[in-house]
Automatic annotation (TrEMBL):
<feature type="transmembrane region" description="Helical">
    <location>
        <begin position="248"/>
        <end position="271"/>
    </location>
</feature>
<dbReference type="Pfam" id="PF00528">
    <property type="entry name" value="BPD_transp_1"/>
</dbReference>
<keyword id="KW-1003">Cell membrane</keyword>
<keyword id="KW-0813">Transport</keyword>
<keyword id="KW-0472">Membrane</keyword>
<protein>
    <submittedName>
        <fullName>Carbohydrate ABC transporter permease</fullName>
    </submittedName>
</protein>
<feature type="transmembrane region" description="Helical">
    <location>
        <begin position="146"/>
        <end position="171"/>
    </location>
</feature>
<comment type="similarity">
    <text>Belongs to the binding-protein-dependent transport system permease family.</text>
</comment>
<dbReference type="InterPro" id="IPR000515">
    <property type="entry name" value="MetI-like"/>
</dbReference>
<feature type="transmembrane region" description="Helical">
    <location>
        <begin position="81"/>
        <end position="103"/>
    </location>
</feature>
<keyword id="KW-0812">Transmembrane</keyword>
<feature type="transmembrane region" description="Helical">
    <location>
        <begin position="192"/>
        <end position="217"/>
    </location>
</feature>
<keyword id="KW-1133">Transmembrane helix</keyword>
<dbReference type="InterPro" id="IPR035906">
    <property type="entry name" value="MetI-like_sf"/>
</dbReference>
<feature type="transmembrane region" description="Helical">
    <location>
        <begin position="23"/>
        <end position="44"/>
    </location>
</feature>
<feature type="domain" description="ABC transmembrane type-1">
    <location>
        <begin position="77"/>
        <end position="271"/>
    </location>
</feature>
<feature type="transmembrane region" description="Helical">
    <location>
        <begin position="110"/>
        <end position="134"/>
    </location>
</feature>
Length: 286
């Protein structure tokens, strides 16, 4: 049986083909993983030359980490976890309920709502910065200010158009017969949603979980608008502050960059099965 590549070409065999594949895989590994390994090694190398990185250090040390702790990097990391934890929980909650309403319920103006949600994804953060800062300074109806608090970084990311659209399109593919059978058995609306529809959306939840985590974790503009004190900085924002300090060495910056990168990698590894299933589910349906 002939194996084919993703391009539909016959897979070459033989010793030279294996050597070529090994060289290609090694080159791809060095291109994508090399900088990350160099960052990790540099973060735990006692003396770091900013012009030279190596994958094989002479010895490893925690000196850079200790200096980073003295610069309150762990406090910034905690702020980031608080923001991403609260923001992602609200974002997933809003996305599943909004997706269920748009996918399974018929109401006038649903197409307009989808267009408006899609339009929010087309506006860059720089355009939204001024109106967002005005809203956070005086929240409509409540007339409270969220500036200078971590809550002000959580509320704006509670709804994201991408996550809502992913959940909406995924829920549209769920057979309605399953809901009708559950209702015939006496299940109410919330029970149908919780026990029938939502368990089938685990692949989509993995997708919005990873993308949502990365989007919130990498936020720079929003903390810049909200934070009024360095104690409120998240880690991405704190890296800019540390970089502008002449007394901070390159090793501390590398530790901060490594800590900023690590949670996203761990989140992907934890949700990769659901993420891959969510990406490929649309290709195998129909």
């Amino acid at each position: 049986m002939r194996n084919e590549t993703a391009l539909g070409l016959a897979e070459a065999r033989g010793p030279w083909a294996r050597v070529l594949r090994s060289v290609l895989y090694t080159a791809l590994f060095m291109v994508f993983a090399g900088p990350l390994l160099a960052l990790m090694v540099g973060a735990f190398t006692p003396t770091v030359d900013p012009t030279q990185f190596t994958l094989w250090p002479d010895r490893l040390s925690l000196d850079n980490l200790e200096r980073a702790v003295d610069r309150n990097v762990l406090d910034y990391l905690l702020n980031s976890f608080l923001v991403v934890g609260g923001g992602l929980a609200l974002q997933v909650l809003v996305s599943v309920f909004a997706g269920y309403a748009l996918a399974r319920k018929r109401f006038r103006g649903s197409a307009v709502v989808l267009v408006l949600i899609l339009a929010t994804m087309m506006l860059p953060e720089e355009v939204l910065a001024v109106p967002l800062s005005v809203l956070l300074a005086d929240l409509p109806l409540l007339h409270v200010s969220l500036v200078g608090s971590l809550v002000g970084m959580i509320v704006p990311v509670a709804a994201w158009g991408f996550s809502i659209l992913v959940m909406t399109e995924f829920m549209k593919e769920i057979p309605k017969e399953l809901e009708e059978s559950a209702r015939l058995d006496g299940a109410g609306e919330f029970r149908v949603f919780w026990q029938v529809v939502l368990p089938l959306c685990r692949p989509a939840l993995g997708v919005i979980g990873i993308f949502g985590f990365t989007m919130i974790w990498d936020q720079y503009m929003l903390p810049l608008l909200v934070a009024t004190d360095p104690a409120q900085y998240t880690l991405p924002l704190a890296l800019r502050s540390l970089r502008s300090d002449d007394q901070v060495g390159i090793g501390v910056l590398l530790v901060g960059a490594f800590l900023a990168m690590l949670p996203s990698v761990l989140a992907f590894l934890a949700l990769q099965r659901s993420f891959i299933r969510g990406l490929t589910s649309g290709a195998v349906k129909g």
